[in-house]
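Quick question: who can interpret this fold?

. . .
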Amino acid sequence: MEKELLELIENGYESNFLDFKTKMYSRKGTPDILKDIMAMANSNHLGKKYIIMGIEDDGIGGKNPCGITPEEKVDSSTYQQFIYNNIEPDVHFNLYYRDYLGKELAIIEIGDTRDKPYVIKKDFKEIKQGLCLVRKGSTNAVANRGDFEYMYSEKSGEFELKILGNYLRATDGTALLDVSFRNLSTYPVTIISGRLLIKDSQNTIRSKHNVNGFGKEVGADFRIEILAKREFTGDLYLGFESSDCLRLSLDDTGYTDEKFIFVLQFRDSTGNEYEVTSPDVTVFAKGKCLWKVKLKNQSTK
């Protein structure tokens, strides 16, 4: 299990980005899943939000991993279609499963939710069209005027991050990724740290790469200031080790047929976090960073 998830399960508590459920939501679709996902999507938390199913939470820090049964398991597309049909604009999320202490847990991970407010698209049972819920602490609350003002102020001062290329190219300790920073706000944004997570199709993190520069490599002192109403486009410099070639199953020519998911994360000088995800991407490498792959292949011949 990923370190971040393990930390949430063992030390996390219900908040505006984390919720625990004993059982999975019904595959037929219920008001509860609409309320919970919509409220999380409207949360003012800037990072990822999680609903972890298969955990009994006593509300005072005690947790019991009860797990989910095989009969409860639902395909991700089933939930996604139900949410897309009933919430607007579209909420982007993933459903995946992980083992914890011999119990299977289901995790809903809600990613980029900058298109707030998210509302009910049409009447569904007791839920009425136009309802907007916001996650506040450990509860879901009906959005008030202040909530809507905050959501729209976020959009008017939006900071956009995009991955422009569909591949990461690595050479001798450094990898390059084509990205775009766009500051639509009226204030400068100073990025002080960042990293790239490379996940496989099962949402398992295969490798992590710290950002070392933009436009040029600067190492641990990396920072970039994006002035108000400005956009920067160019190569992001990331650390890339010879062991990463093994982790990503590259062959001795530096290629793989496997498709990955890139998750790019940044933090600015005021503590705000930004994240963008790009699926169906690949990695290739050349040069000295392939020496461990070549050595491994030679030893197996």
User: Anything to note?
Assistant: The radius of gyration is 21 Å.
